[in-house]
Amino acid sequence: MEAPMSTSRSGAAAPAKSRRRLQPWEWAPYVFISPFFILFLCFGLFPLLFSVWLSFHSWDAATGLGGMVWVGIENYEFVLGDEWFHKSLFNTFWLAVASGLPQHLVAIPLAFFAHTYLAKYRNTVVGIYFLPFITSSVAIALVFNSLFSRDFGIVNLALTSIGNFEVAGIHPLAWLFPTSNIDWGQPQYTKPMIAFVVFWRYVGWNTVLYLSALQTIPNDLYEAATIDGASRRQQFWYITLPLLKPMMFLAVTMTIIGNLQLFEEPFIITGGTGGLDQAGKTAAMHMYNTAFVDSDFGTASAVAWVLFMLIALLTVVNNKVFSQKD
Amino acid sequence: MGVMIKRRVIAAAVVAGLCGSVANAATTVTVAAFPALDAAVKAAIPRYKKLHPDVEIKLVSLAYADHHVAMTTSLATGANLPDVMAVEVGFIGKFAESGGLEDLGKPPYNAWQYKDKFARFTVPQATGPNGSLAAIPVDIGPGTLLYRKDLMDKAGVTEADLTKSWESYIESGKKLKAATGAYLIASAADIKDIYIRSGLKDGEGVYFDKAGKSVVDSPRFVKAFELAKAAHTAGVDGKISAWSNEWAEGFKRGQIATQMMGAWLAGHLQNWLAPNTKGAWRAAQLPAGAFASWGGSFYAIPTKAAHKPEAWEFIKFLTLNKEMQIEAFRKLDAFPALIEAQNDPFIDQPIEFLGGQKARQLWKVAAEKIPAIDVDKYDSIAQEIVNAELEKVLEQNKDIPKALADAKALIERRARRR
After folding, report:
1. Cβ of residue B62 closer than 8 Å to a chain A Cβ
2. How many other CB atoms sit within 10 Å of the CB of residue B183?
3. What architecture is domain B27-141+295-348?
4. For residue range A13-65, what is the model confidence (pLDDT) as tens digits?
5. Is residue A29 in some structural domain?
């Protein structure tokens, strides 16, 4: 601290003299951390700021940068009043709840079960649940598309064979199960199907998160509770759940962010179109299609920022809910 | 001593070789294309090298959708642009209006002189709003009706029954369903798609008029929707969308008896969709005297390309050279846009997959009759909206005039920056 101060003072005293050369140990650290900043500037900050700038313009990308025309907040006005955007937002929230909530409702008991009852096979079981998370989403979409194929899929085959199960000339199960093939491409099935795939894919990931949190809860708490005569269920309610709260906050936040940006699964399952009646088109898909199908990059940027504000708002709400002291 | 000389000779040879290759590689023309068009470019490279040993051709090939996204971003930033850009017909309207492509109609290209050498509907597709010529056509997809002769025979349906009128086509579907259980058509939307393109005159657009006003509430669309609905009510459509698993399985198992699409579909059926149905198919013109085209590719030069003269030479070779076009026709079954190449004796060869029918003659006639429809950069948006409304008409019984009025409002809203 002392040495540089004195040199700068002497430098000020003799301005004609060239400034002292920086020593390698002084500049080297900045070189070492520079790759991150350079990459972040190029691929993080610049696109971010550019998309803000872009959201106030009308721009068909194929015209080149010269084709940008300032339109003020017109893009935002259009997006906020756009029926398709509303629909995609509704779909996004529907999917976020229908796929997000069960993820946690299943993952917490599952992690508790694996933690308490599975000693030897815990890692194997959790590994199996985790497998969908690391499977390529294209492979997942292919598998589900053939499972849910209308005329040749195994799901319809199973359902209709139960529905057509015959005893003495009557079909006792026909009232509950279909007797002819269901067209899973119809709009009323699109969202549940996507929600199921998302749930199936991320439940293992959340289980791993909760399991790791469970392992940090000290065992003496449970021992003390056992001595006091608390049952397993009471231990779960009064020890496990409260101590899981920080992890729940993290996991739920990640689910909210992930589900509101949901893109891959619905995009591949519906072939990029959002399905019949746009029933499976999420806000992120709407943004992509606005940019790359409709060539309207300005409006697409506005969609992105409206979406960002919504996600930020929900994260704040989530933060408030979980940080309440009780 | 001898060794020394040898070394010198080798060194000299190496240096000469290096110099030679440096001289040869003076210009490298980059071509960006997508499958299966890239195969035609690949086939052209060795032939072109013989004529122009001083030009290297570098081919960059991406999947269809990726290629057009990459070209859009390249045009946006003006970076990484190829010298020769392949463009599919679905994007040509958008790219031609962008101003990022050279006007090939002007000097030094003067391409208007070749206008009459190509199938007549192609050049207007590549013409921008201000009369610029943005690209040169290379291959086309004349529309055809492919049908299963064996299934039709079983149902007692003749080719004339299928093509006479749309009503007769749908009526044949009922007979077919009763006799064989097969669907007449995969998707009722196909009928709508062809009907809205039939009866158009040169210069008219499918979705928009000259002033850019949407015309989706015109009688042409009402009738198209009515026909699609009639087919759907008659139960002759499979509710199967093209390129899905059901579609491919439907062809393999003989569940789909007709398909209206580009003539190239016969090649897809033969190669992977349903090779087992060889000989069972026949080709006919589209019902009710309709003529339409499916797909088609073009070559363009970006305004910011590095080697424009060389790129133009190569494009001329790919599109105007008869031998080159015939080779692509014979090897890849890419129907040539160049009329001269359509006159090749290859046109008269029987197609085994179609039971020995000389179907290419039929497609050549179709290529002559396809109207020169005006393309608009909002066509793809309009198409998406019209399809969604048709879906509501078919599945939710939405009133047709109401559906078309809604479609019109939606299109005007999304085409707000015309």
Report:
1. no
2. 22
3. 3-Layer(aba) Sandwich (3.40)
4. 444 456 778 888 888 999 999 999 999 999 999 999 999 999 999 988 777 77
5. no
Chain B closest-CA separation from residue A152 CA (Å)? 7
Intervals of CATH 3.40.190.10 along chain B: 27-141+295-348, 144-293+357-414
In B, residues 210-239, which contact A (CB 8 Å cutoff)? 239
Residue A61: list chain B partners with CB under 8 A. Answer: 72-73, 75-76
Measure in Å the smallest separation between the Cα of A261 and chain B Cα atoms.
Answer: 21
Let me know if residue A277 belongs to a domain. yes
Q: State how far Cα B345 lies from the chain centre.
A: 23
Shortest Cα distance, chain A CAs vs residue B191, angstroms = 18
**Cβ neighbours of A151 in B, within 8 Å:** 246, 249-250, 255
Asked if the Cβ–Cβ distance from B245 to A152 is below 8 Å, we say: yes
Digit-coded pLDDT (tens) for B262-290: 998 998 899 889 999 999 999 999 999 99
**DSSP assignment string, B14-68:** HHHHHHHHHHHTTEEEEEEE-TTHHHHHHHHHHHHHHH-TTEEEEEEE--HHHHH
Out of A62, A152, A296, name the one closest to residue B100 (CB): A62
SS3 B134: coil
**CB < 8 Å to A63, chain B:** 75-76, 98-100
Q: Do A183 and B239 touch (CB under 8 A)?
A: yes
Determine, for residues A64 and B78 on separate chains, whether the beta-carbon distance falls below 8 Å: yes
Residue A193: which CATH number? 1.10.3720.10
Q: Which CATH class is domain B144-293+357-414?
A: alpha beta
Q: How many domains does chain A have?
A: 1
Q: Which domain holds residue A265?
A: 79-148+184-323
Q: Structure pTM?
A: 0.80
CA distance A102 to chain B (A): 30
* pLDDT for residue B139: 92
Q: Are A284 and A304 in contact (CB under 8 A)?
A: no
Interface test with B, best of A42, A58, A63, A79 (most B CBs within 10 A): A63
Average pLDDT, chain B: 88
Residue B214 Cα distances to A14, B94, B211, B309, B376, angstroms:
76, 17, 9, 40, 11
User: How far is the alpha carbon of B408 from chain A, nearest alpha carbon, in Å?
Assistant: 14
Q: Is B397 on the interface with A (CB under 8 A)?
A: no
pLDDT at A325 over 60: no
Flag if A294 and B414 touch (Cβ within 8 Å): yes
Q: Give a yes or no: residue A33 inside a domain.
A: no
Is residue A84 situated within a structural domain?
yes
Contact B279, B352 (CB under 8 A): yes
Residues of B in contact with A156 (CB under 8 A): none
